[in-house]
């Protein structure tokens, strides 16, 4: 299980991703370091300490952010510009997180393993009408993790709880609309 995983409380437009410790996770010992939206350093994440992955998320500047080239599985998270961000094409899992525009972003169907270890779908997300519908990101038997159905802006953009291992309680806008969470 992912132990003591904390993601962040992110206020997207008052925008400081302050001390966003994405995973102080003992399983991966990975840290996302202090991120401030215009000069955010996302991390040097060593997913397994055995350096099996040694992926580096490089310096991210909010409108010209390079997220990284991750050696994990020859997957590349390509140059991300916050309003026209291309998240990645990951060859190993044949997973594509397609062009994301922050106000009309589509994180389209991603099946991480084809072997259905993850069978994850991140569906159309529009950040202000914002639905990440039935985003079963992991249903990952490896960690018994589930990223539950999150409707991004029908909830408090988010107040959504991803994972049964409680990977996060992320409040992106802390909007005044009602919390919505589905399992």
From TrEMBL:
Q: Where is the signal peptide?
A: 1-17
Query: What keywords were assigned to this record?
Result: Signal
Q: Which domain of life is it from?
A: Eukaryota
Q: Which PANTHER family match?
A: AG-1 BLOOD STAGE MEMBRANE PROTEIN HOMOLOGUE, RHOPTRY SURFACE PROTEIN CERLI2
The protein depicted here goes by the name Uncharacterized protein
Q: Which organism is it from?
A: Paramormyrops kingsleyae
């Amino acid at each position: 299980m992912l132990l003591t995983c904390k993601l962040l409380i992110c206020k997207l437009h008052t925008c400081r991703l302050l001390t966003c410790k994405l995973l102080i996770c003992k399983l991966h010992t990975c840290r996302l370091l202090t991120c401030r939206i215009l000069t955010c350093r996302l991390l040097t994440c060593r997913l397994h300490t055995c350096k099996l992955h040694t992926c580096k998320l490089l310096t991210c500047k909010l409108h010209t952010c390079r997220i990284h080239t991750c050696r994990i599985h020859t997957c590349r998270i390509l140059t991300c510009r916050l309003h026209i961000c291309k998240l990645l094409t990951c060859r190993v899992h044949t997973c594509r997180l397609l062009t994301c525009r922050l106000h009309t972003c589509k994180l389209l169907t991603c099946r991480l393993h084809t072997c259905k270890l993850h069978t994850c779908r991140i569906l159309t997300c529009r950040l202000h009408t914002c639905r990440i519908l039935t985003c079963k990101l992991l249903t990952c038997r490896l960690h018994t993790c589930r990223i539950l159905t999150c409707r991004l802006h029908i909830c408090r953009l988010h107040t959504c709880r991803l994972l049964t291992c409680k990977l996060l309680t992320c409040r992106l806008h802390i909007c005044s609309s009602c919390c919505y969470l589905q399992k």
